Amino acid sequence: MPDSIPLPRCSVLLLSGGRGQRMGGADKGLLDWQGHPLIAWLHQLVRPLTDDLIISCNRNADYYKAFADRLVTDGAAGFQGPLAGIRAGLQAAHHPYLLVLPCDAPLLDMRVLLALLKLVGEQPVVVSQGGFIEPLFCVIPRAQLANLEVAWQAGERSPQRWLHGLNPLIVEYPAKDPRFANLNTPELLTQR
Q: Which domain holds residue 90?
């Protein structure tokens, strides 16, 4: 990581709490890709950015603890979706900003993370591909926790809708940029 780039102190949240429906119920973060579990690729990428690495997982905590400083769970039964993991991550974060990433994107690189982190302020910063925001590649100010709590209590479960309502800053990338490929089906996992 270049020393000349002043980066904000951030916590990092790796989302690994899903049901894994497209993987036949398997825990995606623990699936092997090129000799390592998917979560290991993201861990290696983000470890230099933080002393507060959080993994949202709703099962297999004994495996995930090797890749995190702390683990969080959704706090709600029934796999409520990624916004539940983001909520738990914001509640647990030690730093003013939370970098959020999905566990199944091992092709992500540091350039993307630096582009997000360089724009942090009062608004979230979100990746967009071909004009569509990718809500699981974002940085959220911890100060937005109260807003998320209000939305959550009102029944909001979509990270995209919630973030869109906060007028986020956008970092635009071309459609189908391979760095954002989610290896979330058996076919995608074996093609790469």
A: 10-191
